[in-house]
Write a structure and sequence with these properties.
- The chain is mainly β.
- It is 0% helix and 56% strand.
- The chain has a 40-stranded mixed β-sheet that branches.
- Strand 19 and strand 20 form a beta hairpin.
- The chain is elongated.
Length: 617
């Protein structure tokens, strides 16, 4: 190591713990440089404490130890900068490094095999196996140096003997020393507007590593490090690694356990290959989660927990709750140190959301009525035009979303949703007009079409539980339990406010006491089959008629009313008084024809229905 300076160099000696310490002070424009190790350190003042190494433990009494001194402490003051293969200190006011000696880890003791108890018969030696050629090791890309800026930097470094194989000595020559010293950083503490930047190893990555905080702590081990970043009183700390970002007052990333925690209000951004509902995405989209109380991320366990007024958003979907737990379909790695190597030709895919649990705030801690509920909103757009084609909003007490569920009898996996009521489900999607025969469904992005399909808003209020299944859009099913009320009406506004006691024209209501099942089946080149079945004191009311039955089933344009026991089903025109009862009534809404089981058929006259008011411009 070469030392240079401009003004003066002062050498002094002092004692500590019975050992002599030499202090070298280099003033004004001082620099240490080791060309072989690609290292240099600059500062206005550099101080270096050198200490004689301790005698070897097995050295005989009175024997002299190694004469080469070793660093005990290194200090740089004012205009500090440094360079090494791993890190560049671009700017600092104070650098302080402390060294200490440690013993190398003990080598594992291998027990020798026990000798046989008796004599063994002579056997011919087995032929030595031919060693298989070792597979070529993948060429590891060298990491770019980490660039650091801080006001003060303190590091603690351990020093231990590093044995190396000596070269065979020449005849008559003394043996060369067969040892060296190995230095490892044990701790680091950086304070004062700490900024860290490291370029990505892969140039195709959008970014590498960026850290911003008021204080940064590093606890390092050979197996990994623990990084802690603190923010300011009015600004959070930030840790960005490739596509993942963690922001909060205190961010802790533990490489040893592949975990991360944030204390207090913060946010997490990470890429995902599926949306919040579990649907696979063509391109990974980032999930952005904001929270008030904290976060705990356990990558090896594939779990992330968020606490306090949580909002998770991805694309056009979002969920709001008090506590959010996300399970991934594979382990998530926050650092390349934990990530297993990717096999040649294998694509490194982002993790998908497997299960999402949403919970409300406890009743005794909720600050408002909204915190006692959870909210889920998903908007689907046409991939070509970008126009909204479907929107679903769910409000419930608890919500569970599963991306991969299989029935007990097998079959393809499907998406599963469970909501605990009381709750509300609002669905806005294309549907056929009530006054027209059922025709083919509207194409995606087509919106309302005269004489064919139009956008419809369906609002379901349920008091028990909702269970939903989605098999790739081919088959969808939703079951609502306990008291249920449905309002269905045409609307171009998915956020339309509908008052139950003041329904708009063309609105249809359906209520039941026990269970409501809604399902649709899309077949190739055929109209989508839509079914709805209400059970338990079911009541249906439209603009022109109403009806009652123990069960009411809607199959496309056909409505089936079924009575129970001695209580018959009933259908009645609301304006001309036509009324029919029977055990089973089948009514065709497209033609206004009906037939009653055990009775003569008839036709409900349209009557004089009220005029629809003109829309407000």
């Amino acid at each position: 190591v070469k030392a240079t300076w401009l003004t003066s160099m002062v050498q002094s000696r002092e004692a500590a713990d019975g050992r002599d310490i030499e202090l070298y002070t280099f003033n004004d424009g001082a620099k240490f440089e080791d060309v072989k190790a690609d290292f240099w350190l600059k500062g206005k003042v550099l101080k270096l404490w050198l200490i004689a190494p301790p005698p070897a433990a097995n050295a005989p009494a009175g024997a002299a130890g190694p004469s080469r001194s070793q660093p005990h402490r290194l200090q740089a003051l004012a205009d500090v900068s440094a360079h090494s293969a791993e890190m560049d200190i671009e700017q600092a006011d104070h650098l302080n490094t402390l060294f200490r000696d440690v013993q190398p880890p003990a080598a594992p003791v291998v027990a020798a095999p026990a000798a046989p108890a008796g004599p063994r018969p002579m056997q011919p030696p087995a032929p030595a196996p031919t060693p298989a050629p070792a597979p070529p090791k993948p060429v590891e890309k060298s990491k770019p140096p980490m660039k650091l800026r801080a006001r003060t930097i303190e590091t603690w470094v351990t020093r231990l003997p590093a044995p190396k194989t000596p070269a065979p000595p020449k005849p008559g020559a003394p043996a060369a020393p067969a040892g060296g010293m190995k230095y490892q950083m044990e701790k680091a503490r950086c304070e004062g507007n700490v900024t860290v930047h490291q370029d990505p190893v892969d140039a195709a990555k959008p970014r590498g590593t960026d850290i911003l905080g008021s204080r940064m702590l590093i606890d390092s081990t050979p197996d990994g490090s623990v990084l802690t970043v603190f923010g300011w009183h009015d600004k959070p700390g930030e840790v960005h690694n490739e596509g993942t970002s963690l922001v909060g007052p205190k961010v802790v990333i533990d490489q040893l356990h592949n975990s991360a925690t944030i204390e207090g209000r913060g946010s997490l951004v990470m890429p995902a290959s599926s949306d919040l509902n579990g649907s696979a995405l063509k391109q990974p989209e980032p999930v952005v989660v904001h929270f008030r109380d904290g976060m705990k991320f356990q990558g090896a366990k594939k779990v992330a927990d968020f606490f306090g007024k949580v909002t998770a958003a991805q694309g056009s979907g979002w969920v709001t709750c008090h506590t959010l737990q996300v399970n991934f379909d594979r382990p998530v790695y926050l650092s390349q140190a934990n990530r297993p190597p990717t096999a040649p030709g294998q694509k490194d895919e982002s993790a998908k959301l497997d299960v999402v649990y949403c919970y409300p705030a406890p009743a005794d801690t909720a600050e408002s009525a909204q915190e006692k509920q959870v909210y889920f909103d998903q908007l689907d757009r046409d991939p070509q035009t970008g126009r909204p084609v479907r929107r679903q909003r769910i409000e419930a007490r608890e919500l569970t979303l599963r991306a991969q569920v299989r029935d007990a009898g097998g079959g393809e996996p499907y998406k599963f949703l469970r909501a605990a009521g009381p709750g509300i489900v609002r669905t806005w999607q294309p549907g056929s007009r009530d006054d027209a025969a059922a025709g083919p469904p509207a194409p995606k992005g087509a919106g309302p079409q005269p004489g064919g399909a139009e956008m419809k808003l369906t609002i379901v209020n349920f008091s028990g539980t909702m269970v939903g299944k989605d098999k790739g859009g081919v088959y969808r099913e939703a079951t609502f339990y306990d008291s249920v009320r449905v309002i269905d009406l045409p609307s171009d506004n998915p956020d339309l406010v509908v008052e139950p006691h003041k329904l708009p024209p063309q609105a249809t209501t359906l209520s039941c006491a026990d269970q409501l099942v809604v399902w649709s089946h899309a077949r190739p080149n055929q109209p989508t089959e839509q079914h709805m079945k209400a059970t338990g004191n079911a009541y249906l009311q439209s603009q022109e008629y109403d009806g009652w039955g123990e069960t009411i089933e809607l199959v496309g344009k056909t409505v089936i009313f079924v009575g129970e026991g001695s209580v018959p089903a009933r259908i009645k025109n609301r304006f001309n008084g036509n009324d029919q009862t029977g055990k089973k009534i089948i009514f065709d809404r497209a033609t206004n024809h009906y037939k009653v089981e055990g009775s003569l058929g008839g036709t409900l006259s349209p009557g004089a229905s009220p005029q629809r008011p003109a829309s407000k411009k």
